[in-house]
Amino acid sequence: MNRLDFFGSGAKTVLAPMAGYTDAAFRTICRGFGAALTVTEMVSSKALVMNNSLTETLLKRFDDAPCFVQIFGHEPQVMADSVQLDKMQDFEGLDINMGCPVRKIVSNGDGSALMQNPALASRCIAAVRKVWTKPLSVKFRLGVADSAGAADFAKMCADSGADFVTVHFRTRVQMYSGNADYSALADIVKCGIPVFANGDVTSRKQYLRLTEEGAYGVSVGRGALGRPYIFAMLAGQKGSADVQELILRHMRLLRSYLPDKVVANEMKKHAVCYLKGMRDAKKTATACALAHDSHTTEQLVRQYFEQYPQNRVVFYD
Which annotated residues bind FMN (predicted)? Predict the structure, then answer.
């Protein structure tokens, strides 16, 4: 059996892992719109081994298979130990983060810091591969300041045991600014394993262009925030989405496993994304950010769409 058979014959799309955003609720909603694969927020391999209570929330899932769990770290044995835990076996695959550009992650030797130490990165992948029998992927960036070593890094991932890689086509220096640069895609796809393209994917046209240029599929991050229906768009489907119901469903799912105060706090950022670009929505988004309970957030959302019913349904194609 091919390790990527779960993608099927449809659009090969992935909801990219985003710290603070790809919670179990949002992953479930994106799956409903056709995301072929979702990935958890990144989880520290060391925290997993130490049984940190926060990891339980990060690993929460509903019936949204297939789903990968993303780990980060830089100690091969610790990473190998973490993936052997019973709770990790609930996932269909594993992704190793070697692309996070955030200072506190990089300064600890994790995330994109590993791009500057390919030998250690290789040992991390190989150590995990030795004990992990399910699909294994690696996510990394185009490079630190340029794309000079991207193709070699992808080849190293393949040689070390990865089944596929996801490349965010921005450098670490860029962080999340500027535009994704796909000029190196043709060289990277020669690595011998499937390559998923990540960065500025917002339309069916871009999906087709990238797959025609050699990408196996695409990974969508910020383009899905507030717009989970993007996965239906990438698959070439036409339809509509009720934004109010998306927000309320998101809250209902969060309420099923989080304290109400946490739900309200989590919905602050999501509400901003769902309401972005809508007429006079800034006041509602600001009020949601100040809400101390999710019932207040729900009331604010309902009031907004009562006032602007024309904004409630979004059509996509």
Answer: 17-19, 70, 139, 168, 221-222
pLDDT at residue 6 in the model: 85
| pLDDT the model gives residue 163 | 98
The reported pLDDT for the residue numbered 1 is: 46
Burial of residue 269 (number of CB atoms within 10 Å: 0-12, 13-18, 19+)? middle
Q: Which residues are annotated as a binding site?
A: 17-19, 70, 139, 168, 221-222
Ranges in the chain, pLDDT < 50: 1
Residue 86, judged by CB atoms within 10 A of its CB (0-12, 13-18, 19+), counts as exposed
Q: Is the peptide bond before 66 cis (omega within 30 degrees of 0)?
A: yes
pTM: 0.95
Tell me the pairing of strands 164-171 and 217-220.
unpaired
Beta bridge mates, 15: 38, 220
C-alpha 196/C-alpha 214 separation (Å) is: 9
Catalytic residue among 100, 157, 191, 273: 100
Give residue 26's pLDDT: 97
Reading the block at residue 131, the tokens are 């004990």
- What DSSP character marks residue 143? E
For residue 100, indicate whether it is catalytic: yes
User: Residue 36 has what DSSP assignment?
Assistant: S
Known binding residues for FMN are 17-19, 70, 139, 168, 221-222
